[in-house]
Design goal:
Layout (H helix, E strand, L loop, with lengths): L4 H11 L2 E3 L2 H7 L4 E5 H5 L5 E7 L7 H12 L5 H12 L7 E7 L3 E6 L2 E6 L1 H4 L8 H11 L3 E7 L2 E9 L6 H12 L4 E3 L4 H10 L5 E2 L4 H13 L4 E5 L5 H6 L2 E5 L5 H6 L2 E3 L6 H15 L2
Parallel strand pairs: 2-9, 2-11, 9-10, 11-12, 12-13
Antiparallel strand pairs: 1-13, 3-8, 4-5, 5-6, 6-7, 7-8
The structure holds adenosine-5'-diphosphate and magnesium ion (MG).
Length: about 300
């Protein structure tokens, strides 16, 4: 064909289900030497489910009341953990009380007012400090994380009211994709996640990732990318969430996962995986390298 190599590569990438937004993006894909993968919604399917509902003594809530309260606060959030909580409440046929004053903090969780009381739902590491006077919240969190769960804490008027244990499944092509990317770049991909270290390492070991950076806020993901770039590396970030958008923007090239991805991640990324196949990523890195050899 007479089409310039990078344009044919864009067309070929499209056949793999990857939308490259520009010729520059297509060209940069082949230059990367570090791949950083987000966990929830990227390495995993992004449809986590609530496995455990653990009310804490003191708040006086039973399982159903705890779940209804958490779901009411999570209802406006598009985070996969929020959807898990709302779905769990629906499956149990719970009526959600009305929530007002919703606020969300990326990488931390959500807050709202429910029936006149303040409800916070989110990361135990971020929410649990002085408020856990008798240590029962921390014990419950630690026990759930040891089982590979993402523990989500519920605070009622600033006091621990319960903990939810949430777990997700690896994407079926996660291990093969990690291996292919390691082969292409000569370095095993790095896992960047806001989740707890225990759950992150457990999942990483299943796909043979050893470099795990956990407990990260969105700006920490950016800092990791910037420090690699400052060392002369070219970083590919793959993510799905609102919380990944700053790192997608900071990277040499950012790829968002399209089906589950947030609008902000899709807008920020240089390329979008339209079908839900991680394995398309090493395939398009290869396409880019081939095209660049043809550009003279
Ligand atoms: P990841 O980097 O794995 O995609 P996030 O950065 O989105 O994870 O979230 C990091 C942590 O923040 C979660 O493990 C959870 O503890 C907490 N969190 C963030 N958003 C929410 C939410 N809507 N509901 C509950 N917890 C949340
Ligand atoms: Mg994510």
């Amino acid at each position: 064909s007479t089409m310039p190599p990078l344009l044919s590569a864009i067309a070929n990438a499209g056949r793999h289900g990857v939308l490259a937004k520009s010729a520059v993006a297509m060209e940069r894909l082949g230059q990367v030497d570090i791949v950083a993968l987000d966990k929830t919604g990227t390495l995993t399917e992004g449809t986590p489910r609530v496995r455990d509902v653990r009310p804490l003594p003191g708040a006086g809530l039973d399982e159903r009341a705890l779940l209804a309260l958490a779901a009411a606060a999570e209802h406006p959030s598009e985070h996969p953990l929020a959807r898990a909580v709302v779905d769990a409440a629906r499956e149990r046929g719970l009526a959600l009380p009305e929530a007002t004053g919703f606020a969300s903090a990326p990488g931390r969780g959500v807050a709202a007012t429910v029936d006149g009381r303040s409800v916070q739902v989110g990361s135990p590491a971020r929410l649990l400090d002085a408020c856990d006077a008798d240590g029962s919240a921390l014990r419950t969190v630690t026990a759930l994380e040891a089982e590979g769960r993402t523990a989500v804490l519920v605070l009622l008027d600033g006091e621990p009211a319960g903990v939810l244990g949430i777990a997700d499944r690896l994407r079926p092509d996660a291990a093969a994709t990690v291996a292919a990317l390691a082969e292409l770049t000569g370095r095993s991909p790095v896992l960047l996640t806001g989740d707890n270290d225990r759950a992150a390492r457990r999942l990483a070991s299943e796909v043979e990732i050893t470099d795990v950076r956990s407990g990260l806020l969105p700006q920490d993901k950016v800092a990791a990318v910037r420090s690699w770039e400052a060392e002369g590396h070219r970083v590919l970030v793959v993510g799905d969430g609102v919380n990944d958008a700053p790192a997608l923007a900071a990277a040499h090239i950012g790829i968002a996962l399209g089906r589950a991805g947030s609008d902000l991640a899709l807008d920020t990324a240089d390329a979008v995986v339209v079908r839900d196949e991680l394995a398309a990523i090493p395939a398009v890195v290869n396409l880019s390298r081939t095209a660049r050899r043809l550009v003279v």
